[in-house]
Design a protein that fits this description.
The protein is α+β, with helices and mostly antiparallel strands. It is about 30% helix and about 25% strand. The protein has helices at about 15-20, 30-35, 55-65, 145-150, 160-175, and strands at about 25-30, 50, 70, 75-80, 90-95, 100-110, 110, 115, 125, 130-135, 140. Helix 2 packs parallel to helix 5 and helix 4 (about 145-150) runs antiparallel to helix 5.
Length: about 180
């Protein structure tokens, strides 16, 4: 089985074509920071979306089993067998139909009822309705405080994440005035 080694991410407007009829997702990562700020802040090597675990199987089925690779264990890619995704899996990479390139990464957000919880400390919870904010182009963006929570709580902070965090901190006063 061929597993891609390079990224060729679609534009944000093209994302939905890869997700077929599945619409319950949010834009995450650096692209969500750019969309929130209304400008490009850095180069991006990939594109991330977020999906609640309770909706994950519907999302993956819409994409098509042959394009789905679980990062299990982290750093390795295992083809999805169409069954339930193990609770330990929080990253899923999606290939193009020909399996030549990676097109997106799915970040899995654990949820329970109408709450989402932070997998690194389940005491931190928020309502699903607070998980996303509306982007100017109608695309749901991950709540910037959740972006901050995930990016800031890493053992080894990458330069791109430090830049995203600095941009969020600098923009917060203007965002709160909106």
């Amino acid at each position: 089985m061929h597993i891609p080694t390079r990224w060729q991410s679609p534009s944000i407007p093209q994302l939905q074509t890869h997700l077929a009829g599945f619409h319950d997702w949010v834009l995450c990562g650096g692209h969500s920071v750019d969309a929130l700020l209304g400008r490009r802040t850095r180069a991006h090597g990939d594109i991330d979306i977020g999906v609640f675990r309770s909706r994950l199987t519907a999302c993956l089925n819409a994409i098509g089993r042959e394009r789905v690779f679980l990062c299990d264990p982290p750093g390795q890619h295992r083809a999805w067998d169409g069954g339930e995704v193990p609770a330990r899996v929080h990253n899923i990479w999606i290939s193009d139909a020909a399996r030549e390139h990676w097109v997106m990464q799915i970040l899995v957000f654990d949820d329970e009822g109408d709450e989402v919880y932070y997998r690194r400390d389940p005491r931190i919870r928020w309502p699903q309705r607070s998980h996303a904010v509306a982007g100017a182009d109608g695309i749901a963006l991950l709540n910037p405080l959740i972006t901050f929570l995930y990016k800031a709580n890493r053992q080894a902070l990458e330069d791109k994440d430090a830049l995203d965090l600095g941009n969020l901190i600098a923009a917060l006063p203007d965002l709160l005035r909106r």
